[in-house]
Amino acid sequence: MSKVIRALAVLALVAVLGTLIGWLFSRQGDVTPVAGTPPAEQSPPPPAPMAAQTAPEPAPRPREAVRIKVTRAMPEGAADWEQQLDNILLGDDDDNGKADKLLALIPNAPPDAQQELAQHLVNMVQDDHYDGAAEMLTNAATPSEVSGVLMNDLLNRKNSLKLPMLLAIARNSAHPLKDQALDLLGLLTQEDNGTNWDQWAATVDTWLQDNPD
Predict the structure, then answer these.
(1) Residue 58 forms part of a structural domain
(2) Which residues span the domain enclosing 148?
(3) Which of 168, 169, 84 is closest to 120 using CA atoms?
(4) Which of 21, 125, 149, 190 could form a disulfide with 118, with the two C-beta atoms 3.0–4.6 Å apart?
(5) Under a CB-based contact definition with an 8 Å cutoff, are residues 143 and 170 in contact?
(6) In the chain, what is the greatest distance between 2 CA atoms, to the nearest angstrom?
């Protein structure tokens, strides 16, 4: 009996194990494997906000040339030289006094007025008061319009004034009238000393002894 009971017990145990195993297998079919959560699909980044388009600034218009009137400071006496000339000519000074004022006015007068003033000067200045006019004539920087008037007037002066002045101009290599002065020396003295200024000085002294006036 004990063997029968053991056999039955074994069979019962086998049946229980088989039932348990079958149940486990049936549970595996019912379990749905848990799938991993798929990564969220990344949406493309939103487009960067476009900068507000502004209308292009118009190109700057070229500036119109502005004409600037430059007022140059004029030397004293340049603007009203005609009035000053009238004041000199109608004044109470003697001729030499008027000549001195004209000499002072010429350098400050406009170029186109200097020639007229020089003409008035030679009409006023006397031989015994010629120092100022002589300085202007022998100055190489004197405008040609002025020196030309003075040179033409010099030919009407007395020889004792004329010949030394011509020699002073002729020997000044920078003077624009040097050639004309040398020609006049040769014409008056009938000598040709070239550029030998010492010989010319002697020639002028000798000639003036015979022709003082």
Answers:
(1) no
(2) 77-157
(3) 84
(4) 149
(5) no
(6) 201
